């Protein structure tokens, strides 16, 4: 492994890796990524069956840049992994793991060696488990800027059953409080969100670490971040959760955006898939929030290089406006 200088850095391992987050090397999704970095196709294929346990559909690895299906798809995923990142090799650094509800998540950082220099790439690797040791589907999330040539668009991975924001009643404790405050009408309730965070709570870890993208690590930085969000949540955009993986300490949520007309016209927002982790401290309050999406980069998209047209993307999960439902004033 190269020990070259760091050309691109991220803060995931710096902020969160430590004994408070023990790592189980047997987790299948972690073994998959290690196999990909080692170019071991057989080890990766051994984690899957040709078809999922139910539904007569092929096993899947869905990445930000491409979807791979079936065992041959698994092999191609491994064959093309390093080259996709223009890398010669990759060192896997697991940081946080969450397992519950038939799914498993490893949040990790990969130190890719590119032309003798290190590019640190943080990822969520979410697995639908077939058994404790095998996989039906894996969904990988990372910020689009870490993948050469990738546009800031990812068509929603889930087809929403309802065009409504997620129901906080599906969540518990500080995570439920956070989402009720996030979807408060007419605007996100900043004070209520800050009140569910413990001392030293951190926000960030999945964006490039540069002057324009810095984690929020102080109360003042957290307040500024949520006051900015209050300018458009929930009036312009809402989150509908599609999976909830909660082990009692960390709650990982895969979600898709629902976008109102105001969101489209004022902010060029479109429905995309994203993922978040909300970690509770020993006092039950949030000690960290980690989000991976492409929000705010919609105007950078070159729609000639996306799998759907802009017009098609704008129709996905579009509503004229949000009803005063989940986060209505009376709930605050």
Which helices and strands occur, and which strands form pairs?
Blueprint: E1 6-8, H1 12-16, H2 28-38, H3 41-45, E2 60-62, E3 67-69, H4 70-84, E4 89-100, E5 103-114, E6 117-129, E7 135-141, H5 173-182, H6 190-195, E8 197-203, H7 219-229, E9 237-246, E10 250-260, H8 261-267, E11 273-280, E12 286-292, H9 310-315, E13 318-319
Parallel strand pairs: 1-6, 2-7, 8-12, 10-13
Antiparallel strand pairs: 2-3, 4-5, 5-6, 6-7, 9-10, 10-11, 11-12
Explain this structure to me?
The chain has 332 residues and is α/β, with parallel strands linked by helices. Helices cover 23% and strands 30% of the residues. The protein has helices at residues 12-16, 28-38, 41-45, 70-84, 173-182, 190-195, 219-229, 261-267, 310-315; strands spanning 6-8, 60-62, 67-69, 89-100, 103-114, 117-129, 135-141, 197-203, 237-246, 250-260, 273-280, 286-292, 318-319. The strands form two sheets. Strands 1, 2, 3, 4, 5, 6 and 7 form a seven-stranded mixed sheet that branches. Strands 8, 9, 10, 11, 12 and 13 form a six-stranded mixed sheet that branches. The model is unreliable at 326-332 (pLDDT under 50).
């Amino acid at each position: 492994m190269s020990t070259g200088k760091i050309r691109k850095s991220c803060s995931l391992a710096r902020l969160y890796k430590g004994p408070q987050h023990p790592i189980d090397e047997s987790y299948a999704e972690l073994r998959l990524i290690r196999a990909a970095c080692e170019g071991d196709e057989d080890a990766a294929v051994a984690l899957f069956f040709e078809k999922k346990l139910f539904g007569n559909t092929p096993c899947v690895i869905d990445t930000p840049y491409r979807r791979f299906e079936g065992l041959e798809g698994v092999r191609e995923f491994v064959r093309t992994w390093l080259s996709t990142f223009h890398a010669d090799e990759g060192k896997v650094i697991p940081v946080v793991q969450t397992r519950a509800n038939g799914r498993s998540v490893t949040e990790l950082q990969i130190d890719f060696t590119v032309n003798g220099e290190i590019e640190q790439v943080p990822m969520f690797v979410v697995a639908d488990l077939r058994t404790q040791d095998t996989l039906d589907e894996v969904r990988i999330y990372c910020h689009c800027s870490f993948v050469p040539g990738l546009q800031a668009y990812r068509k929603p991975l889930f087809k929403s059953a309802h065009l409504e924001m997620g129901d906080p009643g599906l969540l518990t404790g500080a995570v439920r409080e956070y989402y009720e405050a996030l979807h408060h009408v007419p605007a996100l309730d900043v004070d209520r969100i800050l009140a569910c965070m413990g001392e030293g709570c951190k926000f960030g870890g999945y964006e490039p670490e540069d002057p324009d993208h810095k984690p929020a690590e102080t109360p003042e930085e957290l307040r500024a971040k949520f006051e900015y969000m209050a300018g458009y949540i929930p009036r312009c955009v809402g989150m509908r959760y599609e999976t909830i993986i909660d082990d009692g300490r960390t709650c990982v949520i895969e979600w898709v955006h629902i976008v109102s007309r105001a969101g489209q016209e004022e902010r060029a927002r479109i429905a995309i898939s994203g993922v978040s982790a909300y970690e509770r401290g020993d006092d039950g309050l949030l000690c960290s929030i980690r989000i991976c999406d492409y929000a705010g980069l919609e105007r950078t998209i070159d729609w000639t290089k996306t799998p759907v047209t802009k017009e098609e993307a704008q129709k996905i999960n579009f509503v004229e406006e949000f009803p005063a439902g989940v986060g209505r004033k009376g709930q605050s």
